[in-house]
Design a protein that fits this description.
about 450 residues
Length: about 450
């Protein structure tokens, strides 16, 4: 009997405990009392004071149950604690008969118009909540000039549309009304990518540069800009190279419509392969009436720089002294060159020193090979005439290397001077060109011209 009573009392105790827990649970899930921040059962000045302290983030005298205090302070349930809440608490104190506080979720519109938050009402706090959606959730930020919009920390963030057209001469932007890219021409400095232009500037949407001025002031050079380096190049026009019967190769230069050898002739055979006699004796040289050559001072070392000296009979030989397609220039062809360099026809027809600076334009500049003062020498034509001297046979032997250059023409003088032929002379102390007739036995240099 006692045992049954004890068991009945135990059942009653369990039921009582369960009832207490149930009631407690029901009580704790009841909405918080709005405005009663101090939880003293009334809304008074102290609640307004504590709400101000919460706004100012000042340490409260009692920090227990802060979540409940925060919920109580948010009297309009907008999820924020601010001056509005303080005003509403004061109104409640002054006019308690009016409804100043929100009392249930039914009274709240929690939509914050943010597509990157999940909006709902917390029934305990009677307060709107806005939870961020997961990172990367697609959204629309409302900006036509962004794309690939996604949620990031509760905000809809888009990537600005790339309107760059790769043209430095346009200002690129996105029209916020249409979302279309727009490219407006500008006048900025730019780089057209051409190393041969300068002062590049934008014009009508294109980068335009001024061609680099590579004119060196020399009318006889070809002036151009190297498209790879942007450097000016001023070169004398060439006709390639020419090789004689002995295998000697000569550089060439184009002067007007003529193509000239750039070096004095060195050949020792006629074009058909027959040898040109090499005469070293002055007396024998003086008595020749057939072709021959010699080296200045009979020294082979002079040949590489100055070429060889030939009498006029070698020039006139039908076996031809010049390479295939080339010949010794006539007196008229020498005049053509001189007039191309600036001499008038009347000057060219004269005998002796003629013109003004045409000889200087033909002579190599400086005193590496010419004696000083090498008057007027600019080598403006690129002809690079060198003072190879001459050979007079018994009369004077070799002479004038360093201060005189003589070049045969293939033109014989008219009767009664048939022992003479026309030649050109350049002097170390004159800038003009000499036109002379000389004994056919004399030894001069030869510059060939192309047929």
């Amino acid at each position: 009997m006692v045992k049954r009573v004890i068991m009945s009392m135990s059942h009653c105790a369990l039921l009582l405990i369960g009832l207490i827990l149930f009631v407690s649970a029901q009580f704790t899930n009841e909405p918080i009392t709005k405005g009663d921040v101090t939880n003293d059962g009334s809304v008074n000045v102290l609640d307004a004071y504590w709400t101000v302290m919460i706004i100012l983030e000042i340490q409260l005298p009692d920090t227990s149950a802060m979540e409940e205090k925060m919920c109580a302070a948010d009297v309009n349930g907008d999820g924020k604690i601010n001056v509005v809440d303080v005003v509403l608490i004061v109104n409640e104190i002054l006019y308690p008969d009016d409804d100043w506080f929100v009392s249930s979720c039914d009274e709240l519109d929690c939509d914050d118009d943010n597509s990157c938050t999940q909006d709902y009402c917390d029934t305990f706090c009677v307060q709107c909540r806005h939870d961020n959606l997961p990172l990367g959730t697609p959204c629309d930020d409302g900006d036509l000039c962004t794309e690939n919009d996604v949620c990031q920390n509760g905000n809809c963030v888009g990537t600005p549309k790339d309107c760059d057209d790769g043209n430095a001469c346009t200002d690129d932007s996105c029209n916020p009304l249409t979302g279309e890219c727009e490219h407006t021409n500008n006048t900025a400095l730019c780089d057209d990518g051409d190393p041969c232009t300068e002062n590049d500037v934008c014009q009508d949407g294109s980068c335009v540069g001024t061609s680099k001025d590579c004119d060196d002031g020399n009318p006889y050079t070809d002036d151009s800009c190297n498209p790879l380096t942007g450097e000016c190049e001023n070169v004398f026009p060439t006709c390639g190279t020419v090789t004689d019967i002995d295998g000697n190769t000569y550089q060439t230069i184009q002067l007007g419509t003529q193509c000239w050898m750039l070096e004095n002739l060195k050949v020792t055979h006629y074009r058909n392969g027959d040898p040109i006699p090499h005469v070293t004796d002055n007396t024998e040289w003086s008595n020749l009436t057939t072709g021959a050559y010699c080296n200045y001072d009979n020294n082979e070392d002079n040949v590489n720089t100055y070429g060889r000296l030939y009498n006029w009979y070698a020039v006139d030989d039908s076996r031809n002294i010049g390479p295939e397609g080339w010949h010794v220039p006539t007196d008229a062809e020498w005049k053509q060159l001189e007039m191309y360099l600036g001499m008038s026809q009347s000057e060219a027809d004269e005998i002796g020193l003629r013109g003004t600076d045409e000889g200087g334009k033909l002579k190599e500049a400086g005193t590496a090979h010419w004696d000083s003062p090498n008057t007027g020498a600019t080598n403006e034509s690129g002809f690079s005439a060198l003072p190879g001297g001459n050979h007079f046979g018994d009369y004077q032997g070799f002479g004038a290397m360093g201060y005189y250059a003589g070049f045969w023409s293939s033109t014989e003088c008219d009767s009664p001077n048939t022992n003479y032929a026309w030649y050109r002379g350049l002097h170390f102390d004159h800038s003009e060109v000499g036109r002379y007739h000389g004994y056919k036995r004399r030894g001069f240099s030869i510059r060939c011209v192309r047929d």
